[in-house]
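Researcher: Structure prediction, please.
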Amino acid sequence: MPLPAGRWPSLPSGPIALGVRPDRIRVSSQGDVAVTVRAIERLGDRMDVVIDAGPTRLVARIENDDALVEGGTARATLDLASAHLFAPGEEGVRIADAGG
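Model: Predicted structure follows.
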């Protein structure tokens, strides 16, 4: 997924890792990216949903949604306004927060 122009004005060249908290990912029938629902864990009025967006696996924490089923498809939107960028690798050094 391309990053919005101007959000991070001075990025290094090469690979970077995008960090988005689970509660900042929306999963529903509408969204920016097609995903496959791999697992659902119900947590009272919320649920953790493990999704695959191509080769990338994410965990979203959303309000209960009975329309989502394991093995089914959905759409996801990441809240890039609250995202963080990290250098790839195990060290995970933060490069930038949203907005620079």
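Model: The beta strands are 17-19, 25-28, 33-43, 46-53, 56-63, 73-78, 84-86, 94-97.
Researcher: Thanks, that helps.
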